[in-house]
Amino acid sequence: MHRPYLAFHVPPRVLYTGNTKRGTSPAVLIHEGCFWRSYKLQVGPSIAQPGVLDPRGVVSWKHNGGDKKALKADEHKLKGYKVRTWRLWGETGKEYVHEVKRNREAGEGVDPDVPSESATELREKPCRPVIADEVVYLRWTAPLSRQTRCYHFHYRGIEFQWKGTGTVKESRRCGLFLRYNHLKLVAKLPLAGDEKTAAQLDICLGKFTSSVAKFKSGTLELYDTAILRLCEEHLPSMLTAAADPFGDGVSKLEGRDEQVLRLKKSTLYHVFVATALCMIKSEKEKRHTLLDLIAHAGEGGGGAGG
């Protein structure tokens, strides 16, 4: 997950697929809310189209969905950012910004903030900004309750939750204090029967085990077999999204390993990973904030006692 830095702006984080630093292609744009209450995830293959994200890691101005009112009216629209002629130290895309500045001064190349087509071409074939295929909201359910470790989101009609679990134990030193830091991902499915009871079945799909290691937040494990079974029974479109062009769908002779690889390329898997990273980040920042408050309170109390 990459966090681009652009002075005086708060661009969304970008979740890339692949095993390199900047990944193979962008999969999810993550917009953070205030005080860890909510995260807006813009998902879909349209984000990975060439030119949607520029070398800075932000949406290019050509794909800007409009002003604040337009962006608020349609949550699928993307917020674009112009390439300024100046930059502050630490901003991402240093070489790209300098190259655009040199081209503007020399009057050469293509300006990323100006449409390259002629007026006639624009009338015949308008350049429409790309929009996200889907939008998912991850929300902190009840911050002022006994179940503070609970985040929920809906996807394709199914409710999912990241919530605390006490089944994980850390055997190393100080591992006992981490019992309140482990979380699991569950899918809440309605049970067949009486609708008045509204009973639900929780299916565990993954787990995050917090760690006491200095340079490691923890271990994220997704249960591919359970996720694959969930898709087969409730979300078959996730497995047929990357089917062959002849429309035959997923072959029955396809092995489980091939189906899992197909599943990992689906938007559902991207949503699971993105929500997990948001949840892990929120939990870490909340713990650090709480520790800072306790430390400041202790210092203040010591000073008053003295």
Biggest sheet: strands, sense, closure? 9 strands, antiparallel
User: Order of strands across the biggest sheet?
Assistant: 1-2-3-4-5-6-7-8-9
Oligomer: single chain
Query: What is the CA-based Rg, rounded?
Result: 23 Å
Spans with pLDDT under 50 lasting ≥5 residues?
118-122, 242-253
- Helix and strand composition category: alpha+beta
Roughly what is the average pLDDT, rounded to an integer?
A: 83
How many independent structural domains?
A: 2
The number of distinct helices, counting runs of at least 4 residues, comes to 7
For the record, give the distance between the C-alpha atoms at the N and C termini, rounded to a whole number: 47 Å
Strand percentage lies at: 15-25%
Share of helical residues: 25-40%
In total, how many beta strands? 9
Please tell me what the overall shape is.
Answer: globular
Explain this structure.
The protein has 306 residues and is an alpha+beta fold. It folds into two domains: 112 residues, no CATH class; 158 residues, no CATH class. The protein contains seven helices and nine strands. The longest helix is centred in the C-terminal third of the chain and has 39 residues. About 6% of the residues have low confidence.
